[in-house]
Structures are given as C-alpha cells and as structure tokens.
Amino acid sequence: MRLAVWVVLIAGAAMSSPVTLQAQPAMPVIGILNSTSSAGVPEQFAPFHRGLAEAGYTAGQNVGLEIRSAENNYGRLPALAADLVRHPVAVIVAAGGPVSALAAKAATAEIPIVFTIATNPVKSGLVNSLNKPGVRVTGTSGLTSELDPKRLELLQQINPEARAIGVLVNPNRPDVARQSRELQSAADKLKLSLEFQNAGTSEAIEAAYAIFAQHRLDGVLVTADPFFNSRRAQLVELGKRHALPAIYQWREFAAAGGLMSYGPSIAQAYHQAGVYTGRILKGADAAELPVVQPTRFELVINLKAAKALDLAVPESLRMMATEAVE
Q1: How many Å apart are CA 240 and CA 41, to the nearest integer?
Q2: What pLDDT score does 25 carry?
Q3: Which of 38, 71, 74, 233 is the most buried (most CB within 10 A)?
C-alpha cells in the first residue's frame, strides 16, 4: 500500500513541475562512408578519434557513429551515401580516397563532408580551391597517385640493375587511365619497361604476382589505391613469397615487412579529419575550412626486407629515409 502511494506522489509531482523535465538535445551523429572493408575501420580510425577528442567529442558518449562500408566495391558507394543522408547525419566523413568523397558530394549539398585523403581535390571537382573550398566539403589533399612516378624512381635507386617493373593497378579506380599514363611517362625517362596488371580482387592480386614472378621482373610498384591498402598483409606476403622488391604508398606497408614506402602520413590525414569534424560539429562552416596539404613525405625502408632480397641500400637512399625499419 505504501509503495502505491509513493508512486502516485512521484507521478503527481512530475506532472505539477513540467519545467524540470525538459527534453535532452539529440546526440549528433557522424556518418562514415568507407570505400574499403569494414574490417579495417577500427585500425584506420584510431587517429580520427584522437582528433575528434581534441574538440571534446567521444563516440558513444556525446556523438554517435553510423558506418557504411562498400567492402571494396566502389559501385556501392552512391547507395550507401544516400542511406547516410536519409539517416540523417550531422556530417559525413568520406574515407578511402576520392571515390567515397565524390559519392558523398553527389548525394548531398547540405550535409558537410570531410574527406580523409583525396588526390587532387580541385581537379577531381570536390572543391573549388584548396584555400577556400566554396562548397561544404573539405579535408586533406593526399598527393597519393601523383607520387607514383617518384616511387618508381626510388625503386630503381634501391635496385639499380632493375630494367623491368611490374605495376599493380586497380581497374575500378576512376582515374586509373591517367595514373597509368603518368607512370609510363616516368618509366620512359628512367629507361624502364613496365608490365601493368589489373587487380580489383584478392584473387586478381594473387594472379598478378604469379605473372610478375613468371616473367622474372625486377620489382613491383603497388600503385596508390584504397583497395590495395586494405590488402596490405596479402601484398607484403606475396612480395616475400616471390622475392620481388616492392614499393608502396604508406609507411604501414614497410612497417609490416614490405621493402619500402613513400608518401604522406595516412595517420595524420585521419587525425586531421577528426579535428575538422569536431570543429564542424561545433559550428564551423566546411566551406571555409581550407583543404590541408601535406608538408612532409615519409620514405620508409625496411632493412630486414632489403637484406632478405639481397639488396644493398645505397647510402644516398639511407640519408633520404625518414625511417629505417630494422
């Protein structure tokens, strides 16, 4: 009996004092549009969450996450982007190269978009300019595929006897034709012959490396592409199995046992995306946030891998390296 009276009293007090029971503001939600596999999201986004925390946001506490991954099928991105717009979300973080950023931009002109890293965002039509995007899209300019010719040069430096190089390209990449043309032009200047192999699946990667080995090529350039980054362990293992010197775009490849890598820091790019996302959630206009350009490029050489391949790393290359993995 006493319990019943107590409940009634509580209910009555609540109804007589409506001012004290105000609705709490809805938690903002970040939509993540990822072109690659969902399996790699936790590792990839650790720097993103650190950047987000600098603005005072922690996923699950004061901001929500909605993740959509295309699982390396770039054709799925438009539908996934549209799904995030319908959710709706406060900001879309486009991860895994310009393909996801372009899909997000095509899906909405209202929701701010932050891309983690994108090759030439002006030329691709993502933004009007780097200093003032002019649209609600911003992020980090990656200089990823633009550095493929430089990677070819570095591969020749570590293996001066090289004459024929295998090139792994993703045929699903929107700018693959331009990427291949620029590489061929660089190879002509270096007097190198290139053998291109398309690989848009794990099975195709295996087949491509088997062909490279069968043709006794002198090395492999794994071109810049989000799909290849998601297949890092497979690519490094294949390089070891076939004893093929290879160069990649991110330091994580060399850290995992690959011969060498050259490019900007992917961790810094994801961190910057977290910082910008936090600022936008606090009211900043994405159209006014300049696209960040990398100021430092990492040349990472795995000395253990070089020894296994019987390659003597030239002193000039050692001096250029930002990191040597023992």
Answers
A1: 26
A2: 57
A3: 74
